[in-house]
């Protein structure tokens, strides 16, 4: 939702529910989110590859970057770019579509319009988690290419020969769980700060406000959901099919509890902090443009 939407709807004591209008608004928000994510994939892919490698094998940011660069230079950081350009925008479309759909639905009824933002955000988080399950095969291909580089597809093909196509859905449960656990605090924080912080007419202050909200949302979300992403990546990229328990054991044996909760966390906070900052500006900028364009038609 744009900054002014919540305020204007609260002034309307007798809202008329229009599903077509609600769906159209959610579609514009989802489309805005996907466009913003496409830009982010290209600009921040190198950090995400570093992060996923750390999720699987541990290590520091600097050490991992040096290792990956040694494997293939700058292009090594962009292994999995094609599936990332498909998965990233689609997943963000689902996230933003779900968030806006549920918030707009809640705001359309007197009985739910005054519920706390934290409660209104929950429905969108569950919907986003289910949507991510459908994208798991694309995420699996992307992640194994990021972690294993040129050998990624060979490893994945070998696993498919042993366990069949369901291998592409390895990590789906953790993906959905991490999405819900990560999506809810991100959008709950975003919606709460968006509702509580004063809005500005000045463009620079408006951009700074959006950037601050996005960064805060990302830091909170990443800290809460990191361990699930470590487990997901370990299961997806193991050279042999393994269970979730075995994935947890692999991490614990090498890095202990600290590794389970802390692997790649600094990189993720840096990456998603930058992404959250950039995404909030781009998402709301595109959304404002599409909403304005729609109102003129």
Question: How would you characterize the overall build of this protein?
Answer:
Helix content is 81%, strand content 0%. The protein is mainly α and 297 residues long. The protein has a single domain (5-289), classed as Alpha/alpha barrel (Mitochondrial carrier fold). The protein starts with a helix and ends with a helix.
Which CATH class applies here? Mainly Alpha
Radius of gyration: 20 Å
Strand content: under 5%
Quaternary structure: single chain
Report the strand count.
0
Per CATH, the superfamily is Mitochondrial carrier domain
Question: Topology of this structure?
Answer:
Elements: H1 5-10, H2 19-57, H3 61-72, H4 81-107, H5 110-113, H6 117-134, H7 136-148, H8 152-163, H9 172-196, H10 203-237, H11 244-262, H12 265-296
Helix pairs in contact: 2-3, 2-4, 2-7, 2-10, 2-12, 4-6, 4-7, 6-9, 7-8, 9-10, 10-11, 10-12
Could you give a short description of this structure?
The protein has 297 residues and is an all-alpha fold. Helix content is 81%, strand content 0%.
Q: Which labels suit this protein?
A:
MCP_transmembrane, mainly alpha, Mitochondrial carrier fold, disordered N terminus, 297 residues, membrane, 81% helix
């Amino acid at each position: 939702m744009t900054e002014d939407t919540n305020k204007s709807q609260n002034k309307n004591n007798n809202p008329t529910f229009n599903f077509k209008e609600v769906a159209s608004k959610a579609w514009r928000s989802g489309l805005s989110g996907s466009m913003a994510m496409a830009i982010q994939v290209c600009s921040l892919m190198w950090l995400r590859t570093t992060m996923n490698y750390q999720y699987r094998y541990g290590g520091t940011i600097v050490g991992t970057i040096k290792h990956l660069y040694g494997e293939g230079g700058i292009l090594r950081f962009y292994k999995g770019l094609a599936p990332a350009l498909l998965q990233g925008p689609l997943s963000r479309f689902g996230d933003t579509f779900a968030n806006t759909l549920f918030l707009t639905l809640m705001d359309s009824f007197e009985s739910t319009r005054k519920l706390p933002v934290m409660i209104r955000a929950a429905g969108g988080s569950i919907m986003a988690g289910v949507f991510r399950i459908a994208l798991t095969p694309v995420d699996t291909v992307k992640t194994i290419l990021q972690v294993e580089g040129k050998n990624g597809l060979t490893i994945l093909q070998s696993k498919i020969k042993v366990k069949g196509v369901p291998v592409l859905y390895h990590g789906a449960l953790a993906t959905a769980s991490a999405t819900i656990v990560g999506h809810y605090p991100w959008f709950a924080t975003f919606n709460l700060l968006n509702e509580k912080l004063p809005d500005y007419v000045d463009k620079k202050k408006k951009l700074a406000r959006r950037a601050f909200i996005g960064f805060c949302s990302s830091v909170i979300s990443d800290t809460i959901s990191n361990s699930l992403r470590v487990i997901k990546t370990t299961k997806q990229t193991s050279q042999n099919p393994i269970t979730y328990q075995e994935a947890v054991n692999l991490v614990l044996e090498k890095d202990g509890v600290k590794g389970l909760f802390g692997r790649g966390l600094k990189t993720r906070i840096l990456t998603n902090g930058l992404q959250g900052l950039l995404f909030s500006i781009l998402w709301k900028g595109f959304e404002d443009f599409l909403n304005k364009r729609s109102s003129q038609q």
